[in-house]
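Key idea: predict the complex, not the pieces.
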Amino acid sequence: MSEPDDIAAGHAALVRVVRDEGRRVLATLIRTVGDWQVAEDAVADAVERALATWPRTGVPEQPRAWLIVTAKRCAVDLLRREHRRAEKEASAMELLPPPGDRDVDTIDDDLLRLVFTCCHPAIEPAAQVALALRTLCGLGTEEVARALLVGEATMSKRITRAKQKIARAAIPYRVPDAHELPDRLLGVAATVYFLFNEGYSATSGDAPLRGELAEEAVRLARLVHDLLPDEPTAMGLLALLLLQHSRRDARVDAGGRPVLLADQDRTRWDRAQIVEAVALVGRGLRRCPDRPDPYLTQAAIAACHALAPNAGATDWDAIVSWYDVLLTVRDGPVERLNRAVAIGERDGPGAGLEAVDAVEGLDHYAPWLASRAVLLARLGRADDADDAFDRAISAEANAARREDLRRRRRRARDVGDVAPT
Amino acid sequence: MTMYAALIYAADVDWSAPEHADELAEYGEFGQGAAAVIRGGAALYPTSTATTVRVAGGKGGDVVTGDGPYAETKEVLTGFYLLECSDLDEAVATAARIPAAWHGAVEVRPVIPM
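Result:
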């Protein structure tokens, strides 16, 4: 590596450290300053100063402490400049770090507070996701807009409105009490899971950036689990995301086309993530034997797939049983459909079709139509299968998945049989 | 501390009529229980007693009055409380104890300090 490359690589590493630390420092600044905008501006200033001075002076021994102190000074300056009122001045003075400041040690608590504030039920769901990306993942407004496929002006307004509501309605910056925690944790989990799916199923928009959403969601799930290590929902969410994420390299082919679970090259699954997730599922389920957490249950199903050495060795009996458990804690048509598909794998296409047809309310849902088509083809009912594929294709909004259905329809016509979903 | 208005949306009826005495008593209970955070409030007569006032053509123009707010919804503003709470979670927990929360709906809005 040549010298300029070394410097460039060194600089890139420095930028990463500064950004990473800055993101963590923001949570503390929001708590001490109480004003999101001022806190964000102050951290941005501090990050800028670090990037300007650290290459000359070297990285300080405690970069995080340096950033916190600098950001607080920037916040005081900002408050002085923007509000010259005596009252604000007094509150600005209190921001100066007292001797023996413990902020560096409380950073995890601050991050957790930030997670719960971003996912407060009084904030509209779309804004929760945007706020989480903006403040917890450190994405710029423009990046958030591109990632969530919304115009930048709309996104900017949405984030501003949410921040104003937090300030004006005094949405608290705290971790909910123990009795509220299960409900509120479900809200956090839903936001993180939404974020993951946005990234995971991304086939439109800026693909690399949307792929990053899945990474960020895994990071958030890990953060929530680190902070609440004994909560089954936190364990289940992290395990579920790790298991789905472990297949990221195998789930599309070189041409970017989706590859069915059964056809995936399992050597390309991320073993380390699978091992970690399976351990989480085991530990989590022991914590809630009477009423398994829905995320843990879904993770248990994903673990059955992850542990099968090949598609033929999948333990469909166990998967159907886990779906039975899931239906006791989260009963919805999509969950019923997935169970019906598993029955088709366990008991054959005839039983599968019967089970799929018994699921009501999904007449226009592309995966339901596709499941029927696949089962009809396996039963050798070629004409019915062809009709069903046509209906599934016209209901599917995603271009890549539509193309996949067309391929499967061709295969069904050619061989009179198709691989299961 | 933040001041919130808990705006009560409920059936457009005469809450002072004897047949609503039981429901009014529920409000009395709430008032006693939440006395620590209640800073004011009022119950309103039905919209049939309301008068809408507008000044046409800007300040100093003609005063135009009309009857009622022409409510077309089932639930209308029938009263409010002023609550002083430490944060939104406390305000929401308090509002959830107002009888209208299960008979109708309660809207919690922060009050602009003047």
